[in-house]
Structures are given as C-alpha cells and as structure tokens.
Amino acid sequence: MGRLKALIRARGGVVQEARVPLCRPLRPLSLSIAFTRAVLRGGRPSCVLVPMIDLETWPFAFLLARLLRVPLIYDCFESRYLAWVEERSGKRASIKSQVLWALERLALARSDLVLFDADAHQR
Length: 123
Prior knowledge:
This protein is mainly alpha-helical. The protein has helices at 2-10, 27-42, 58-68, 80-87, 95-110, 119-122, and strands at 48-51, 72-76, 113-116. The protein has a three-stranded parallel sheet with strand order 1-2-3.
C-alpha cells in the first residue's frame, strides 16, 4: 500500500485514509465514521481503494463509492480465500471459506479496477 500511496502522490493526487480497527464486526461502522471524517476534511474523493486485507468491508465501500459516484479499486494482492483454505488449513466447505469465496468473487466482478501483484494472481 505504501508504494501505491507514493505513486498517487507523485502524480499529484491526494490520499485521504479512512483507517479502521482490526475488530471485524465493528469495521463497517468504524469505516463509515472514518470515511465521513476523511470526506469532511478533504472533500469528495476521486476514488475508494479497498486493500485485500479489508475484503469484509468491500460491500460497504462499494455502497460508499456508488453513493459518491467515484470508482472503486480493489487491491487484490493475494486471494484471501486461497490463503485461508491452502495456507491456514481451512476447509473449502466451511462457512468462512464460502463467505470469503463469495465476497472475493463479488469484489473481483463489481470493482471498477482490480490491482494484482503478479500475472499469476490475475489468472
């Protein structure tokens, strides 16, 4: 994320961050408060960027981006679903696996732009 912010700033863009706590159940509420503060401080954003670690907040960010009529960018550094199933020994049939799969599929299909780390991830 640091390199992306530096690139945006180097091209004359302004980065307003809406950071939220790691407590996943509170993220949508925290995100709405942080996002509102960022908009009030810096004006209407030119886009909304969701890092892959915040996949659970993607639906809320999608709504915010649509309300503000700005593009939504999903930074898919790696697949959260595959990381959960393959690296953490999660079962494919578990509820968490299915939720991650559905959210990731939705984020990839409905984001205006998806960033990938490598060609292999894109495939």
